[in-house]
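Many introductory courses stop at the sequence. We go one step further.
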Amino acid sequence: MDEPKEAEGDLGNGGAPPLPFRAAVDALRGTRLRPQIEIDPAPAPKRLAPYAYALEAAVVDGEEDLADGRLVLLHDPAGHDAWRGAFRLVTLVRAELEPEMAADPLLPEVCWSWLTGALSARGLAYGEPSGTVTRASSHYFGGLAERPSASQIEIRASWTPREGLGGVPDTGTHLVAWCDLLAQVAGLPPAAPGDASVVTLPQRRGPQSR
């Protein structure tokens, strides 16, 4: 698919972005992804770091979404004690589930392992991972009683990508790993044939309209 287009104001809170951050953003923009994933620039948060760049993506089947998410690259040239580095990746991933699947007590641990497994499968070095896995159910009553119950999984996470040559992390491969997670949550087969580390989500609820 086409690489993400630049959105005005994505790169920081003013001033010329430093070279490592520009290189990291260029790597995100130049990454080619599987055709089922649509990705575009999004407004970046202004208060989390001196420089930030954001992408939003959806796993699409025809005109319907199977899963969606947001990935934010943060950069503090002075470094950040909590990150233990100068870069941080922050994500939100969401998908709908069958209620029976949402009731599985092991689901949160499995979903977290999908994230760490996606990063490891791409050979990525990272540190200080943290996050939450939330499952929510909606039941409808009264005038909405005809709607079927709905359940959703939501993964919020962040991690510090290890910096390479010139202090630049391999953000392109991190983006590919993140899209692997999106595809996995959506129930798509693995992009790499024979990748036994990928376990797709069974019994998903039908696609959600955009």
